[in-house]
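Dear support,

I submitted the protein below through the web form. The confirmation email said the job was done, but the results page showed an empty box. After a refresh the structure appeared. I'm attaching both so you can tell me whether what I see now is the final result or a partial one.
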Amino acid sequence: MGEESAPLSGYFYDPERKRTTQKKLWSVTGCAQLESFLLAPWAARRRQDFLELLDRLSPSIDQLSAAIEQEEEKRSEVLHLMTHPGVGPLTALAFVLIVGTPERFPSGKQLGSSKGVK
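What the results page shows now:
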């Protein structure tokens, strides 16, 4: 990886946590960092299109995120699932709503089979 890509790499990948850092990337600071990079004209245009789309979608995303937070507070199973690394509010809530009570499945294999996983 070259020296020019180093500033951006901190926003895409956190080596200590071994995952991407999307929250930093889409913050005001992260978007400003993205806008500061020199790109070819077509790539700069695509970047601008995506950042404008993000601006238009952000209010809807905020509303949906608030609804998920309200629902997660009502369900202890969701909060419990979120204690596992990599499981966030949306994944935990979706699991609880789709699976229901996991105790009704004797094994993970049967749980997967009931949802069409082979």
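Response: this is the final, complete result; the empty box was a page-load delay. Residues 1-11 have pLDDT under 50 and may be disordered.
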